[in-house]
Design goal:
By secondary structure, the chain is of the alpha/beta class.
Amino acid sequence: MTIPSKYDAGSAESKWYDYWMENKYFRSVPDEREPYTIVIPPPNVTGVLHMGHMLNNTIQDVLIRRARLKGYNACWVPGTDHASIATEAKVVAKLKAAGIEKCDLTRESFLEHAWDWTHEYGGVILEQLKKLGCSCDWERTKFTMDDDMSASVIKVFVELYNKGLIYKGHRMVNWDPEAKTTLSDEEVIYEERQGNLYHLAYQIEGSDEKVIIATTRPETILGDTAICIHPDDERYTHLAGKKVIVPVVNRAIPVIQDEYVDMEFGTGCLKVTPAHDENDKMLGDKHGLEVVDIFNDDASVNANGLHYEGMDRFAVRKAIVKELESLGSLVKTEPHMHKVGTSERTKAVIEPRLSDQWFLKMKDLSEPALKAVLETGDIRLFPKKFENTFKHWLENIRDWNISRQLWWGHRIPAFYYGEGKEDFVVAATIEEALDLARKATGKEELQAEDLKQEEDSLDTWFSSWLWPISVFGGILEPENEEIKYYYPTNDLVTGPDILFFWVARMIFAGYEFRDEKPFTNVYLTGLVRDKQRRKMSKSLGNSPDALQLIRDYGADGVRVGLLLSSAAGNDLLFDEALCQQGKNFANKIWNAFRLVKGWDIDDTIGQPEHAAIATSWYRNKFNTVLAEIEDHFEKYRISDALMAIYKLIWDDFCSWLLEMVKPAYQQPVNKKTFAEVISLFEDNLKLLHPFMPFLTEEIWQHMEERMPEDALIVASWPEYEKADEQLVSRFAFAAEVISGIRTVRKEKNIAQKNSLELYVLDNEGTGKEFDPVITKLGNIEKLSYTNEKIEGSISFRVGSNEYFIPMEGSVDVESEKKKIEEELSYTEGFLKTVRKKLSNERFVNSAPEKVVEMERKKEADALAKIETLKESLAGLQ
């Protein structure tokens, strides 16, 4: 088989991915083997491949490929999430561009457009994952709006409602005015923003006295229904029971007293707007205040906003400040940093809003999750530091607002049979709903067309929290073969930003619907940031084109570049140079393979001593590193595992082993050495395959003609054999000796082709087993042991051993003596300067201990160097 001179990543990637697919290596069905299961964090159906996806899915592919090599029945389930908010926004924008408004369409018509969009664009990201090398079982691809997935969601909703865990309530919620829907608390991101604190004067009714309040949102005075003071605040107790006039609105509102007020903040007086602040709503309920809602669903002002009706909230803020100033009601304005809630999806500023919504009670659901993560350890988070964050959130959990004012998604299975808010039944089908409605009303004449289904859809996360169960049919058929075989899954790889959105909720669902954890280990990746530590985003323009990176550096190069610096939970500072490093690594391995395969083999010659000890050393070194790698994987230190393999192959295999065993120029290699090197190379490929699948399969298949069942992807992970640690250590010592010889050659400008003599003063008692290797790599003509220093030699030390290389005939002795004398003179001068500083008591007593210690180290190093230089000089006399 002809081996190309250069590795062609693009060609190898398409060839081997097609080969893997054709032979169904990614396919998994239940059998007698132990399963290893991963479910993909389903990317949004609107998504395209970005750096975060690449990192997350590369790690998953590493884990699944390694499990396959270790003999597990590896199953990686792919799929996408319908992403209610993001997808609906895309469809609305597309319709708008065509001159169509959503409000002009029926729900059914809009959903047709949404499905058309999904069918056209929805599979893009999964196809892109194939370019990265992801070995998912594509026949299992799921979509959260598939019929069976939707049926699972509806079944769960009905069960939870019947258990009393789902309820409908009129509550203050987070309103996204851009998406025009509610959000859960976890979907609100709080950002520190520079704003203003406006001090406003309210006239006391029937008096010239005014009371001053401070607010960051002057536009909300349109909805004020009270002023609140602390009952112990002597500045204002005389106002209790009186009324004040709201500026601009001229509405008289009561002054109430409540200990909730912070007397130290602002002026100590609080304006109360029950329709637009959760805490104000609690005060309003407690004191029976009127509720005045001033906003439309797009955050423009409604009819309660008087002459500001129809204006955007932020435009109103600017305008009302000017009006308050003209009325003499604006006392002062001062800069103020405060937290502003924004939508995790649209980035719009959130409006607190009173609304009828559906909620899921969370307290009881969260308790098994707390126990599994923090007490029993049944579920482990990597890194462990996230346990505290997990604990804090679960111990302060609030009910989950699960309804969304969207059409794209799973429509809530509640059916109204009357005009009242409570006149509804919950059922999986219209037939079941009709039966329940007839029983509730006693009206047998009710027909299906008399029922009206809830308009709201469910939060996207309400489907994805079932993901590890529903992808195996475990909701609809709890006892089916697949759910019993593959569940619970093994590892989950995701970002810490969805630890609560998704990870925690999947744990809730696992214990609620199967009385079992959904997974054992959660590997939390960091965020991918640029070199300036900025999060990668389209808006900043700092996120590279993922597919272009693959074209430029090869999929394997990009995978290595991402993983070399991506410790769990720590952000990755992405630099394209890392991908170049990965590409260089691929080329290094390819060239090593070409070197080995280019050797001629001679069956008649025996194995030389240097080759025998070299292959024995590498086998032991390999097992030492294999144990290290297994430990890294056990602790989910994926980056460290790759670095260990990288050093093993680059340094130990390519730089040492191949140099030790390669035959002399135009000479053949013996058959035994060649076979051993190929075997070691194959083991290297097995370790590297999860990280660089394309390159390794390409080389594996070039090594010899192989049947499909012998492909690398389904080979066996190397078996660990106890390593001879002493042998490994002795080689490390020998490697230093070789480096010493090479340093002498470089410093004395002696060509490698010129052979040298080497004399060893063996104070360490190191033994002679690596002498053949030292002789070969150092090009030593004669290696001898001595009991005394060799005159006329250059010497160097390794440990307490001293090595002498006679210089006669190799270098210009007089020139070398002059060079050493100059260096000796400089070093003695340097020592004098250091000792002068150390003899200064003021310096020694007043300088930091570390500084003094550094000077003492300089003194010791200079003394050692002077001794070595003097010995070298004496040797040349």
